[in-house]
## 1
Amino acid sequence: MNAQASSSPKVPYDLRTAKQIERRMIIDAFQRMGQSGFKIGDYKYIGMGGIYFVDFVLFHRLLGIQMMLSVERDENIKKRVQFNRPYRSIELEYKAIGDVIPFIDQDLKHILWLDYDFIMSNTVVTDAVNASAQLSVGSVLLITVDLKPPPGKPKDWKIHFQTEALDFCNPAWRISDFRQSNLPRINIDIIDAAIRQGLTGRPNVKFLPLFNFLYADGHEMLTVGGVIGTDAEDRMLDGCRFGDAPYIRRKLSDKPYRVPKMILTRKERVSLDAAMPAKPGWHPKEFEMDEEVIALYKEVYRFFPTYAELLL
Amino acid sequence: MLTRDISLEAAIVDLVDNSIDSMARTRGLSLDESLLDEKAMDRKAKAFREAGLPRIDITIDEKHVSIEDNCGGISYKNAKDEVFRFGRVADPKRSRLSVYGIGLKRAVFKIGRDITIASKTTKDGFLVQINVDEWAKTDHWQFPIEEQDPARTDSKTGTRIMIKRLTDDVEARIGDGKLLGKLHELISKAYTLLVDRFVIIHVNGARVKAQPIPIGLSSKVTPAREQFDYDGVRITMVAGLSERSADGEWTLDRAGWYVLCNGRTVIFADKGDLTGWGVGLPQFVSKYRGFVGVVFLFSENPEALPWTTTKRGLNLESRVYQRVRNRMAVLARPVVTFLNNMYPSGEVEEPGERAIAGTVKQQDIGTVLRKSGIAFQISMPERPSGPPMVSIQYKVRKDRLELAKKILQKPSWAATRVGEHTFNYFLGHEGPK
């Protein structure tokens, strides 16, 4: 499970709506954290920018992050990555992200996004353990995995998770727990266990969850994230204005936030936007639209990207 | 006292610990991180050699087990207040190898029922004689310690432990023929930093050879080092590669993690989850056989260290060790990646990693520590320019090859050349124009 080729050339990253909403929500949370004492602009961002660097551009423009490192595993697209780098200040390294973790500066706060495009594997758990052992207090750790079931039947899925996640698999899980609807929970619990393992022995340091996203552009993906922190960071998070941020998850045991799938035309969106934030019970007069859809739209309209074709 | 928790070999090594402790105390060798200081240790080793290396002699036969040393002896007061005292020792800091003060007592009871311990320093001396059967009948659990005259000269100081009327189990073990070999092995591993350099140990007249930790380096391979303090323990870790043998291979049974507490090896070449394999590192597989990592834990309070009382295991509940284990994985990860790249599963041309690995030469641990960096680094030659290459290998019948040569009208071509030619011929006809 080690030699994952980069998926950059396969997927047009910048056009994935759900992923983009997730990014915008994460940035929204970081901005709220910024108002409550986290100096996010001084953090160093380490991510996997691929050839699109979407998150890098957003983090730089919206959060003011200056120090950035993009890690790319595929050495065969070195020049392409270099060519597409949007800012000179982005450092580039060609290795697996896990090989960067031991070199993370422990005197600096980081946002580390382990943005895998593959399913749960030994790489995911060992990287999660090592990142939690390495990241300085106050740093943010984000882990994204694909939730596509492993090949075969649930019996084989169970074997896959046990072989890859080893002791991080709850021994009480039975084959019946390995059903598709429960795979998010299995993955969340494994990631949670791996992070806690990495933090053992670090005095008073805990994982303070913030994000637990499910989103699907193709198949379903999971992003778990939070702050590596002490009681002080926990109190700072309490002070963040997260009350009207429906995507925040301060406990991983809670249900993940599912990024809604919105099928809306541009014209509909313009009309809905004009009524936002809508009062409960409001619905458009010109066309029919379920109340739940409007409620969901109210949650995401600020983060919803608009794509249009430009004829250049 | 639970003597069944400890093996006979481990009990004997506990007795050696006792001698080493005396030596450290009387000859001024601190069992602390100065052991890792290359220059200081060279100087000290020279001084030891000039003064004559202390000796520890172990003799084992079916009738008795004895251990005799000229390591400076144990004082009467020390024996009374520490060594032979039951229960917790008030100030255990004086000895760096004694975990809860149980080593020596448990060891002698494990081995036999007629025990004599005599020791002399230049100031005083003592004698303890115990007939275990008689002693067990008494209700005052104390050792009969008699004060003795001091040794007249330095060279006459030392301790002698004689154990007779061996327990049945021990007698059977001694008969099994493998004990001496195992004991040699265990002692040379346990005191890898001390044997031959600071002390000479014999088992039944045969000298125990030093078995250095097989970590190495070269101008192209720099091991990783990390140092920190935690809960009163000073931690120094190093991870890298071992030297390959003359036939270009690594030795599987010496690969893995080594953990030393106050200079004494507790874990040797471990490849399990105790040292993070399958936790922060992938599970150990044979392609990692070049990996060697060493963890030194030092504390003036031996009870702060995560070792078990038998000194052959680590306590996973220890907060210090939990933190250390996670740091070990982070330190080792680049080495593991290097070995993954060296043995790729795809059909990549023999990678430069092999040549790099071949440069590693085993070095003294002090040298390795001095020359290591904050992370494992290799200097790889630039990848050859041009597209990546692969090898194709397949077998054909000899007469079929001869037939191909005949058709090609090239009887002198080597098989490789025929293979290349036919491959290119295929692509020339079937590939894109």
## 2
Amino acid sequence: MRFTAVEQLKAHARNVADSLPAGGKMISVCGGSGCRASGALEVLAAFQEALAALRKNGASSAQVVLKETGCHGFCERGPLVVIRPGNIFYQRVGPEDVAEIVAKTVLKGEIVESLLYKDGEGPVVHEEDIPFYKHQTRQVFGDNGYISPRSVDDYLGRGGYQALAKVLESMTPEQVIAEVEASSLRGRGGGGFPTGRKWRSCREAAGERRYVICNADEGDPGAYMDRSILEGNPHRVIEGMIIGAFAVGAGQGYVYVRAEYPLAVENLRLALSEAREAGLLGENILGTKHSFDIKISRGGGAFVCGESTALMRSLEGKVGEPRTKHIHSVVSGFHDLPSNLNNVETWANIPLIINRGADWYTRTGTKHSKGTKLFSLVGKVVNTGLVEVPMGATLRQIIFDIGGGIPAGKAFKAVQTGGPSGGCLPASMLDLPVDFDELSAAGSMMGSGGMIVMDEETCMVDVARYFLGFLVEESCGKCTPCREGIYQLHTILDNITRGLGRPGDIERLEALAETVRDTSLCALGKTAANPVLSTLRYFREEYRRHIEDRQCPAGVCRALFRYDIDAELCTGCTRCARTCPQGAVSGKKKEPHQIDPAACIKCGICQDVCRFGAVIKVPA
Amino acid sequence: MSKTVKLTIDGRETAVPPSTTVLEAAAGLGIEIPTLCYHPALSPQGSCRVCIVELAEERNGRTRSWIDAACVCPVVEGLTVQTASPRVRRERRRIVELLLSRAPESEVLIDLARRTGAEKGKFVSPDKGSSNCILCGLCVRVCSELVGVGGIGMAFRGIHRQVVSPLGQAASVCVGCMACAYVCPTSAIESALKDGRLSIPTWSAELEMSLCSSCGRPVAPKAYLEKLKQDVNLREELLGLCPECRRKHVRISSGEYGNTD
């Protein structure tokens, strides 16, 4: 159906709102990339089969709607299935569980206890009562569990495109910009630049055409917030972009998305064509004078292409390399024309701000960071997944209340925020309220929202080495400090972890890090030293132990420890000797065993298999 | 537009047109800032970072200071520039030391090291062969911007970055003008004349030379002369001569080309 007037769209939206008939049930199967990886599509197929059989037998009078949705966030417990209404939450569902879910929950409203979420306390039935969800504020991400990303009607039914209707019906571009400015929304891609101010600069810049661009080049290891928004709710991003285009006066938009995100590309492509058919994109949107369309451009996965000027070069079909930003891309960007670039999550916030108003929006958050922020909580944390919290939530709330703390009773050591060029914050910073300015002041950064939790078995020198290694490969190589400096920083770190650290290495790292930070051309280089500087700031002693004592306190750096067998604990069960791939363990039955350091490759299998804790790490 | 921008460089006030860069404004005062990837005839790219300067700007009663490359930084009213502050000297020295790790034999770098106090061997050398290339990109820019050929480009990322011909093979568009070698600050582009052919191993190129119609010595690559014929309005008989014979020819003739030398 093609809407040719705003009123038509609103009437249709009223019709499709809450389309579930009385007594009806919706089975929401998470089809996000995480749940798909753990078998969600098989679960979905099993539901399809079961429901088809049901219909054939005429057994069900109630209407049952099966929905493959985007990511629900709780990836740790996938595949996830939620039965609505009632939000009965089943986790780690396999195809074999489907028959029981249909027979009991869908048809009779009974609970399948074995599939419920359990932690220390008793089982939890409802989605909203699970600690992981209970402490979140899911105002951007929450619709994911209710809609099919492939249905514009689903989005309309949840209030979608109402912000666009409001804008086209009753607002001028100036009013839209003023509202976004009043919301204090700051760019969610990492820079935290005020979105409204960016829009105003773009609108005021001279140029025969203007562009709006969506940055979906999410490249931080372990981060998948933007991916999951695009996969699960692409219309929300499209709506934000149409409104942005109206505000800045753009006729063409682009989504620059990684080719490694096939599901995001597929769902976005479907959503764009649906939006076009509905008259929400193209000439004279909803019968108004606003014309705008969006193209998808798939990026090859270079990390630097998330940088605005590099992204625009890449979009032009050239090599994605940054340029100096003395002239901002809102003035001269894509094809040297005014181009307004915002990240996926920023665009997804726009409909909310227009619908609820800046006054409402600014009630959430801290003084200088308003609204919510999505984080991908990964690493050594019990509840891996995507979380959305108000700006100002503390690291402790995110990692412990929502994330459930550290698995296997281990101690928290650090959390890395802001992607590869973010920083590592120690336990003493757990009560830090998370917003743009607090994270920067602590030596880390918001970045796009990656959050990697590390436990006591993590070596911070090794972590810095890992991230610098990533950046060695991802620096474009255009400017000297980034190209050569990161390589040299990595070389020094690599040497330290291999037991080749020299006195003065810490000072060398600090001096060089300063050069890379202060003299690099773009933000990649300017922030690349953060992993080194923040670990030096909070874990200096660990560096010193590596360099001076040739010891890795966390027992990670292989060159700095060897495996040994505690003769008092060893029972001579021979298990380690039988498992060792190198034949490095010897000893008689029922007598303490020994490890030959010359033959040992430090794979750690002996320690894994020992049931008596007799295999220990000792300084090499 | 007679409007000018006032700024202070190393304590000296100056007024320059708005589109001037800090590097140009400094040059106007006779203040030399070292550069490697800069050439007045080419677009600046601000990549070698040797020309970094310390900038300070007062806004709303607060002074903001930062480091930037002078070759790409446009002048701003009231800007204060320090081209050799202790901080600039320290960072510039380290940048030269980083470049030296890549091209320790480069004469221009050794000279720059002497001027900046940079030491050789401060950093390990990345494994990148024996070339003295410092990836300033002047060759790439001259080839595309001035010659209009675009026969070479940057390939690979980060520490693996290289200037290459297409897929490492001879570019069909290369005319052998050698402008790349002319602008290269570290003489990293090799070429040799052998058996009537110009060989440029750096670009895997071999070009046939045109021989002087008068003395028979090699003049220039045939492809280059063809390009000149199209680009420059010169009489064909002159293009066929080597520079020496051309001079003789011009002296003999009416003086029509007296100024071409």
